[in-house]
Amino acid sequence: MNWLNAALLFAIYAGHCELMAWWCNRTHGLTLRHRTTTKIRAVHDLIVLGAAPGLLFGFGLFGYRLMRGGEWAAVPWGWKAYFGLCGVGVVSLLLCIARHLFRPLPAGAKRSSRRIDVTADLGFKPIGAGKRRAQAALPGNAQYTIEAVELELTLPALPPGWDGVTIGHVSDTHFQGEVALPFFERAFEEMAAWNCDLYVFTGDLLDRPRRIDWVEPTFGLLPKTNPEFGCRFILGNHDWHYRVAPLRAAMAAAGWEDLSGRVETLRRGGDSLAIAGDESPWLNGPPDWSAAPPEAFRLLLAHTPDLFRRAKANAVDLMLAGHNHGGQIAFPLIGPIYAPSKHGVRHAGGTYREGSLLMHVSRGLSGKTPVRYGAMPEITRITLRNDSRALEEDG
Ligand SMILES: [Fe+2]
């Protein structure tokens, strides 16, 4: 047995899988309908699963017999060229792993969190009806443990009047049925108890239109806490597959203000904060920032973090997004592999600095596929801090 060639074939397979994941992630970041992305995933699965026996039997044990004394010279140049490309895939995979393992929290961000075991709190696992019920019931599915994240963000551009303001951020509820209503009620009760000054939702409300009646018992809880700056929402790419007017109407009836494609200026102690919503590339956006006072702090709600470059170009100070669900499955050491983004898993979930822009990407509460491992659902409480306060505390 030639173990070196066995290791090389394994590395080629790993690189091949990374290239396929690269292609799958980028196409899922585009404005494609579900039937198209379903076909792409089927082709991806076939190529990934088929390559393992192809390499093992066609190149390793039989065919070119590379694991049993065969020579690479016998392998056609076309295959060698593709295997070389797989080498690029291996480098990309190693960089992703390094970023996952060693990415520090950005300067100016402090983070703490606690876990809410919804199953223990309720006394039962909140699994409802639907064709994905078996997925929702998978052993060890992290779907039913919420991470309540507390973030303190020190932002140089934040006016003093906004120091200490709290934002409750929730994303990607994907109301569908398999993850039952009590799970979401528990999450929103927790958020209501935070008594934030502003609540925001960054899209993907539902995956089954009849679940629109879940909006009032969940989202409806937060306006009742009388937040000083209200509750604002945008919609996401899953909402784009349905008639959005009833979704917007349901959110409005629950006390939430539609921020899609527009800018609003909020004032506190004489200081301004401009908040905008961008549902690009699926629904309303981009917002016209010229409507904001030039001195205002800029806060953007976007569904996809892929809009970070546009946010930077518009001098946005803080961007809140969702969409990538933390990859939904994050492997130990390796981290997540799949995220529907033009940037792959770069912004799968967490807090990032991109130049002057600080961005938090929530893993959201659920997904069309109700399966999570290593990527718990998330609700986030963000406290804004200005520089002077941070300097005082440091001093
Ligand atoms: Fe989503």
Summarize the structure in words.
By secondary structure, the protein is of the alpha/beta class. It has two domains: 3-102, no CATH class; 109-394, Purple Acid Phosphatase, chain A, domain 2 (4-Layer Sandwich), CATH 3.60.21.10. 33% of the residues lie in helices and 21% in strands. It has ten helices and 15 strands. The strands form three sheets. A seven-stranded mixed β-sheet has the order 1-2-15-3-4-5-6. The chain has a six-stranded mixed β-sheet with strand order 7-8-9-10-14-13. Strands 11-12 form a two-stranded antiparallel sheet. Strand 3 (166-170), helix 6 and strand 4 form a beta-alpha-beta unit. Helix 1 packs antiparallel against helix 2. The structure holds fe (ii) ion.
Query: Helicity range of the residues?
Result: 25-40%
> In whole angstroms, how far apart are the ends?
65 Å
Average pLDDT reading: 95
What's the quaternary structure here?
A: single chain
> Under CATH, the topology of the largest domain is which?
Purple Acid Phosphatase, chain A, domain 2
Order of strands, widest sheet? 1-2-15-3-4-5-6
Number of beta strands: 15
What is the level-2 CATH architecture name of the largest domain? Answer: 4-Layer Sandwich
> Tally the helices: what do you get?
10
Q: Give the CATH class of the largest domain.
A: Alpha Beta
Strand content: 15-25%
List the domain count as a whole number. 2
Based on secondary structure, the structural category is alpha/beta
Biggest β-sheet: count, sense, barrel? 7 strands, mixed
Global morphology: globular
- Rg of Cα set: 23 Å
Order of helices and strands: HHHEHHEEHEHEHEEEEHEEEEEEH
Protein name: Calcineurin-like phosphoesterase domain-containing protein
Organism: Alienimonas chondri
InterPro entries: Calcineurin-like_PHP, Metallo-depent_PP-like, Metallophosphoesterase_sf
Keywords: Hydrolase, Membrane, Metal-binding, Transmembrane, Transmembrane helix
